[in-house]
Structure formats: C-alpha cells, structure tokens
C-alpha cells in the first residue's frame, strides 16, 4: 500500500505535473499559418458564427469538448475537501474521456458561496462546450443544481455520480442477478448511502423492475423510515413503513447490497446473514464498503463488485460517461434522456456476454474472462465499448427526438 501511495504521487507529478495537456490540431508553423489561425484569418469564422450560431460546431472544437465541473463537495468517498483537492479526480475524468472516447475534456473547479452562484457560473459558460459532466457534488444540492442546469443549458448536462453510476450499477446488477438465478422484481435490496449515487441507482433499478417497497436505504443515521423527521425530499421517496432501524435488521435475508457510502461499513457477519446467492456491490471509492477478500472468505456463493480497477467486477461510472457523451455529441443531442440511459444499460450488459479479445485479457493481466461470477460487466479497456454504447445511445437520441443531427452513416462501423 505504501508503494501504491508513492507510485500514485509520482504518476501525478512526473514527467510533468498532472495528467492532461492541450495539443494543436492544425498547422501553426509559418507566418501564413498564423495569418489563418489568428489575425486576420480568424475573423472569417467569427463572422460566420455571428451570422449562423450553429457554425460554431463547424469551425471550433466545441462539439467534441466536454467540461468536467465540480465544487469538490463529495470527492469520491473522501468527502467535502474543496475544489482544489478535487482537481486530480477531475483531470482523471478528462483523461478517461480522451482515452476511451477521444473526447477533449477540460476540468473546472468552482469556488462558490451559494448553490445559485454555482448554477450561474456553470450556466454562463456552458455554451463553450458540447456537454457538461457534473462530478463529485454532494447531495442534496446536486439534485437542485442538475435540474436547474438542464433547464438553463442548451447542451447536455449529466451528473455522472448520479446517472453514470446508476447505469453501470443497473447493467452489472441485472447480469449478476441473472447469474445467481434471481429476478430483480423479487429481490430484497439494501442500499447503504442516500446521496447522489444512491438515490439515482435505486431509481434506475426501480425502472429496471425492482420494487420500491423491497428497497431499504440507509444513511449515517440508519434505516430511512417513515417516522424519521430529518429526511430531505429525495430520501423521503425511499422511506419504508418499518420497525427496522439498523443495517443488521435489514441485511438479514437480503439478496442485494449496494454500497455507495463509505469504507468498511459491511462486516463479514453481515455478509453471512444475507440470503443464499447474494450480490454485493461495494462501490465506494477508493475504499469499498467491504473488501472482496473478506466477503469471499465468508461464503462462496456471493458475487462481489467494487468501484476499483484492481479487483474483478469493476462497477464504476467510467464504463458509462465517456461513451454516453460520445453518442450524445455525435448526434448533437440537447439532453441525455431516459431512453439514452436505458440503451446504455443494455449495451453494457450485452457486451459482457461476448467472448473477450486478447488485448483486453492482456491489459487485465488474466488468461480468461468468461461471463460469470467474476466477470459480470465489461472491462473499461475493452475498445468495443465505445462503438457499442455510443451507437446505442446515439440511436436512442435520434429515435426519441432529442438529436439535432441524423444518425451518421456507417456510424462506429
Ligand atoms: N463506483 C462508482 O462508480 C461510484 C462510486 N461512488 C461512491 O459512492 C459514495 C457516495 O458518493 P455520492 O453519492 O456522490 O456522495 P453524497 O455525498 O451525495 O452521498 C453520500 C451518502 O453516503 C452516506 N454515508 C456516508 N458515510 C456513510 C456511512 N458510514 N454509513 C452510512 N451512510 C453513509 C451519506 O449519509 P448522510 O446523508 O447521512 O450524510 C450520504 O447519504 C462515495 O464513496 C463514492 O466514491 C459514487 C459515484 C460513482
Ligand atoms: C467513480 C466516481 O465517480 C466516484 O467514486 O465518485
Ligand atoms: Mg464521482
């Protein structure tokens, strides 16, 4: 662990500080090049855009650029550490956008006093980008912020910790339950956490067939129930009329545990109390709700996933956000709607059932990956993800009427 710490610090410091840079896409060597790129030539696209605003997509990088924007109030599971501490994560998201979907991305860390300040700041700069990826903004403010920005911005606004996490969780969960021979309609579900990721994950699982009354959600004060008087409007939607109060009360006989809370809250004893063939998604980053080796030491019928790259079954929004934005940008969707999210879930799910190319095995350091308990969801390095997911998303955008462009010919073929 000490080695990982130093290696991670060195990785970020060397060879130059940070993880991303800006590169030129056009010649800028000669005086003539500069007379095109800058003065006087740059005046021509200025005039064109002033006359026809859509020309900004033709003459600038807007259409292939996503801003990753945070206020640093819920940095992974590390908490509210402020905008500057969030910068490595935001640069990381920008790296992933470029690496996996060839989307240019820039991180923006916003210092603000009120939620309205934050909304105004983002709304006022949103037109510079093809889309806005909100990241690591804590609940309940994140819900107000996303709703206001969707209303005010012409480009898609997507809170990754809500919807990216929910999409990947739903894809992994439906596959895991299939492998365990269970139907989500009958599953007793425990959700640890009641914030951005938790609320969105449970809402999407309900759209996929889970029963709201069979979900028990917990926050730092325990089970969310109807007699609590400290619930915000988002938690209240998950209040059960129940006498159960603690994790021990609700984990007894549960089929599913979804952790989007904090480290080490699920014990070996809790895992033993779950129903036969349970599914545990311990998704808190960097430290999961339970370590896979501990969960697996208690019983051999469990499927376990984490948010990390160094264990099997990585349930992490990296499997969604680069590709959902790729599809949305390519048909110039003005929003990311439920049809696009469901298309994304299905495309991710289906890919896990196909044979895995050697390059993915090599990058994962394993000899074989076959759909089953240790491979419920594709690996982020699977280069087929971009084509499959982006295409499904773009088609859903076109079919649901939110795309400004037609489906490109031979898209992603
Ligand atoms: N794998 C993935 O792809 C993703 C994982 N996550 C992880 O999910 C977690 C939450 O993120 P996010 O929803 O954005 O943050 P929020 O701040 O919006 O929500 C955090 C929630 O977790 C609850 N919580 C925190 N600690 C505990 C605890 N010890 N026991 C019970 N509940 C607890 C909080 O309770 P209260 O309301 O009482 O404060 C709150 O409801 C983080 O660890 C993050 O890394 C998030 C997004 C993606
Ligand atoms: C993965 C991620 O977005 C998070 O843990 O916040
Ligand atoms: Mg996040």
TrEMBL record:
Q: Which InterPro entries match?
A: Aminoacid_DH-like_N_sf, Malate_Decarboxylase, Malic_enzyme_CS, Malic_N_dom, Malic_N_dom_sf, Malic_NAD-bd, Malic_NAD-bd_bact_type, Malic_OxRdtase
Q: Where is the Malic enzyme N-terminal domain?
A: 17-150
Report the superkingdom from the record: Bacteria
Q: Which family does it belong to?
A: Belongs to the malic enzymes family.
What is the recorded name of this protein? Malate dehydrogenase
Q: Does the keyword Oxidoreductase apply?
A: yes
Q: Where is the Malic enzyme NAD-binding domain?
A: 162-398
Alphabetical list of PROSITE patterns matching this protein: MALIC_ENZYMES (PS00331)
Key words, A-Z: Metal-binding, Oxidoreductase
- PANTHER family named in the record: NADP-DEPENDENT MALIC ENZYME (PTHR43237:SF4)
């Amino acid at each position: 662990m000490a080695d990982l710490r130093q290696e991670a610090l060195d990785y970020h410091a060397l060879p130059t500080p940070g993880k991303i840079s800006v590169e030129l896409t056009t010649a800028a060597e000669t005086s003539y090049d500069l007379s095109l790129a800058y003065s006087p030539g740059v005046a021509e696209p200025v005039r064109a855009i002033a006359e026809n605003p859509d020309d900004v997509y033709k003459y600038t990088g807007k259409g292939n650029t996503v801003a990753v924007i945070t206020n640093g109030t819920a940095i992974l599971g590390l908490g509210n550490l402020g905008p500057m501490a969030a910068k490595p994560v935001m640069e990381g998201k920008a790296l992933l956008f470029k690496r996996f979907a060839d989307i240019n991305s820039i991180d923006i860390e916003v210092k603000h006093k009120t939620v309205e300040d934050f909304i105004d700041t983002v709304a006022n700069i949103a037109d510079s980008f093809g889309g806005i990826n909100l990241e690591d903004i804590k609940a309940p403010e994140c819900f107000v912020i996303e709703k206001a920005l969707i209303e005010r911005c012409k480009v898609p606004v997507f809170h990754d910790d809500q919807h990216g996490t929910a999409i990947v969780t739903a894809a992994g969960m439906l596959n895991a339950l299939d492998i365990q021979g269970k139907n989500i309609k009958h599953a007793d579900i425990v959700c640890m956490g009641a914030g951005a990721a938790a609320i969105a994950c449970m809402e999407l699982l309900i759209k996929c067939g889970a029963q709201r009354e069979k979900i028990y959600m917990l926050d730092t004060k325990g089970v969310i129930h109807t007699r609590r008087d400290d619930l915000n409007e988002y938690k209240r939607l998950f209040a059960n009329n129940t006498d159960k109060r603690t994790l021990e009360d609700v984990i007894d006989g549960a089929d599913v545990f979804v952790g989007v809370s904090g480290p080490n809250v699920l014990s070996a004893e809790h895992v033993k109390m779950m129903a036969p063939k349970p599914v545990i998604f311990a998704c808190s980053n960097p430290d999961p709700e339970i370590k896979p080796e501990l969960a697996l030491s208690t019983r051999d019928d469990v499927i376990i996933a984490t948010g990390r790259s160094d264990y099997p079954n990585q349930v992490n929004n990296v499997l969604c956000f680069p590709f959902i934005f790729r599809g949305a940008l390519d048909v110039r969707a003005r929003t990311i709607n439920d049809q696009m999210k469901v298309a994304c879930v299905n495309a991710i799910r289906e890919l896990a059932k196909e044979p895995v190319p050697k390059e993915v095995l090599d990058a994962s350091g394993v000899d074989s990956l076959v759909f089953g308990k240790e491979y419920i969801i594709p690996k982020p390095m699977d280069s087929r993800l971009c084509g499959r997911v982006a295409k499904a998303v773009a088609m859903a955008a076109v079919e649901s009427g939110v795309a400004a462009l037609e489906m490109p010919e031979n898209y992603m073929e």
